[in-house]
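Our preliminary data section would be incomplete without showing what the modeling component actually yields. Below, a chain of 243 amino acids is followed by its predicted structure, encoded as tokens that our downstream tools consume directly.
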Amino acid sequence: MKQTKLIMGMPITVEVVGADDQQLMKMVFDYFRSVDARFSTYKDDSEISQINRGLTPEKWSPEMREIMELAEQTKRQTDDYFNIEHNGRLDPSGVVKGWSIWRASQKLLDAGVNDFYIEAGGDIQTHGHNAKGEKWRVGIRNPFNINEIVKSLQLSGEGIATSGDYIRGQHIYDPHGGKLSGVRSLTVVGPNVYEADRFATAAFAMGRAGIEFIDKTKNLEGYMIDDQGMATLTNNFTEYVYA
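Predicted structure:
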């Protein structure tokens, strides 16, 4: 069973092996809608919009507190390269997407589902195996030709996220004031998608030094493509490569 819905301004796909339960799908997609309602900076009535208008921390929801703590933790872990404050406003989208995919995957596990993947805007959480009983296959796109897959990976339980400027344009910046250059895409594989997502965002902001940061960070592997089309990968990235 596989479905795709447009939520949070992007396609979200859920595939569950060996089940045909519409209520299960509804539960997952309703969850993403609730995340969008809370964290979207484009909705005037969202909690994050209210915070940017002055809603004080003691009135924040538990989910918002969790996201803010995760964002602050990531900021410390990345020498401030991950920063959700832009021009005096808070935008936690760099951590919300991976976190929400992971939370949705926990709902499927709690419902007794073991073989599935969830993808939102290119970030993916896998679990178990596909319909053929094999690990899930995930492709890394060529940032110069998004219809071409340059690497195919095998994942089962891991999360994967890619940061780049080739689809959405330049939406990540160097908070230290430098000009981003040299990197077109940086893919990170981690123990779960929210780890991969938050560190992929920070590493991309580091420019060419980002792949070295991923290589030194425990439980993460990465694959960087620079503006000349050259690939650099971390020492153990090949463990995930299928082709």
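The longest helix spans residues 22-39. Confidence is low (pLDDT under 50) at residues 167-172. Preliminary results of this kind motivate Aim 1 of the renewal.
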